[in-house]
Amino acid sequence: xxxxxxxxxxxxxxxxxxxVLLAQRPEGKPMAGLWEFPGGKVEPGERPExxxxxxxxxxxxxxxxxxxxxxxxxxxxxxxxxxxxxPLWVCRRWEGTVQSLEGQQLAWVKPGRLRDYPMPAADxxxxxxxxxxxxxxxx
Length: 139
Ligand SMILES: Nc1nc2c([nH]c(=O)n2[C@H]2C[C@H](O)[C@@H](COP(=O)(O)OP(=O)(O)OP(=O)(O)O)O2)c(=O)[nH]1
Prior knowledge:
By secondary structure, the chain is of the alpha+beta class.
């Protein structure tokens, strides 16, 4: 049986203190309450970088230029009902102030604290890539 392939573009926004932005999935959605990287599904005809720039604008109100997106790693995870393929970019430069425009809780998290935030199963293997890049700081 072949699982539906879902292609999601996601981004670790990193602030000047080396903290990473996580967003909490809202009530009523699958995996509600878990903390994820901002991003979303790549729509037909979109390049994943375009998806990310669009989602960051819609969800967080910030403007990101494509050269400020650095590829870091990817998640490939089999959920019960779909196969997720999710490249993860890192972005340290944007214009505007991060706001929660879709009512989601946001948290700026030191890399050594990422494991304190329950994440979707696909995201767990991404954490070591972020601590390798940013260090293990906890406060
Ligand atoms: N944005 C994001 N999505 C993730 C992460 N980890 C993870 O498993 N996902 C999954 C959750 C969703 O199934 C999918 C992202 O889709 P989405 O956010 O555009 O869509 P959704 O399920 O919230 O809502 P819908 O459009 O299907 O109604 O990828 C992550 O770190 N960031």
